[in-house]
């Protein structure tokens, strides 16, 4: 099962931001976490979202319309990329915050976390921020194919404990499509809730 997605708008600055009149599910995560790969995997396409081997390339908010389900999947800029300037990082942070705060159509935030990497303060900051907005958080542990069974279970337990108020984390791999159906179901439930 795939999700039909169509890129509708891209916003690079706060002035360009728009708040469509439909439910929105935001996708957040550190640069290189596998966000573009996940969008392409959900859509069953290869090049809908850019995949870069150079982290920190996606600097815009991209609005993907799911025309059949009537909601937007909103791709936020990857955060936590150390090699770009502080000013640039702050600019993206502000853009993310501007979009998330007071957004009455925000139905949930999917937080992508690399299943191999230990929890980072930037991830926890974002999770707490989403919590403070009283928006539902859906953690997705990416690149699950790179872990063995024991590592996967450890990652699952660790994140479940840290994000106890969130949805149970979903193990996901864009390579094997592990977790794809569970993720699609969880997203649709958020949209309908
Ligand atoms: P983004 O910066 O968050 O959009 O991350 P990308 O989707 O561009 O992925 C970053 C790198 O991780 C690329 O080299 C991808 O091929 C790789 N990658 C992403 N998802 C997976 C996955 O599920 N399994 C594996 N093995 N590699 C992945």
UniProtKB/TrEMBL annotation:
InterPro entries: G_ENGB_dom, GTP-bd, GTP-bd_ribosome_bio_YsxC, P-loop_NTPase. One of its GO terms (molecular function) is metal ion binding. One of its GO terms (cellular component) is cytosol. The keyword Nucleotidyltransferase does not apply. SUPFAM superfamilies: P-loop containing nucleoside triphosphate hydrolases (SSF52540). Keywords: Cell cycle, Cell division, GTP-binding, Magnesium, Metal-binding, Nucleotide-binding, Septation. Residues 21-193 form the EngB-type G domain. Pfam families: MMR_HSR1. One of its GO terms (biological process) is division septum assembly. Its cofactor is Mg(2+). Belongs to the TRAFAC class TrmE-Era-EngA-EngB-Septin-like GTPase superfamily. EngB GTPase family. Necessary for normal cell division and for the maintenance of normal septation. PANTHER family: ENGB-TYPE G DOMAIN-CONTAINING PROTEIN, MSS1/TRME-RELATED GTP-BINDING PROTEIN. This is Probable GTP-binding protein EngB. It comes from Desulfonatronospira thiodismutans ASO3-1.
């Amino acid at each position: 099962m795939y999700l039909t997605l169509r890129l509708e708008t891209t916003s690079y600055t706060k002035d360009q931001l728009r708040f469509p009149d439909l439910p929105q599910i935001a996708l957040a995560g550190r640069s290189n976490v596998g966000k573009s790969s996940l969008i392409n995997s959900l859509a069953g396409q290869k090049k809908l979202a850019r995949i870069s081997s150079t982290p920190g390339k996606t600097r815009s908010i991209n609005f993907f319309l799911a025309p059949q389900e009537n909601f937007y999947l909103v791709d936020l800029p990857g955060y936590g990329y150390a090699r770009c300037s502080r000013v640039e990082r702050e600019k993206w942070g502000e853009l993310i915050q501007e979009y998330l705060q007071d957004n009455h159509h925000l139905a949930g935030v999917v937080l992508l976390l690399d299943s191999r990497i230990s929890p980072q303060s930037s991830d926890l900051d974002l999770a707490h921020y989403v919590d403070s907005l009283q928006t539902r958080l859906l953690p997705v542990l990416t690149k699950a194919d790179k872990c063995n069974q024991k590592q996967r279970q450890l990652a699952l337990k660790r994140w479940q404990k840290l994000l106890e108020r969130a949805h149970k984390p979903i193990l996901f791999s864009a390579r094997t499509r592990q977790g794809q159906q569970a993720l699609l179901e969880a997203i649709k439930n958020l949209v309908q809730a």
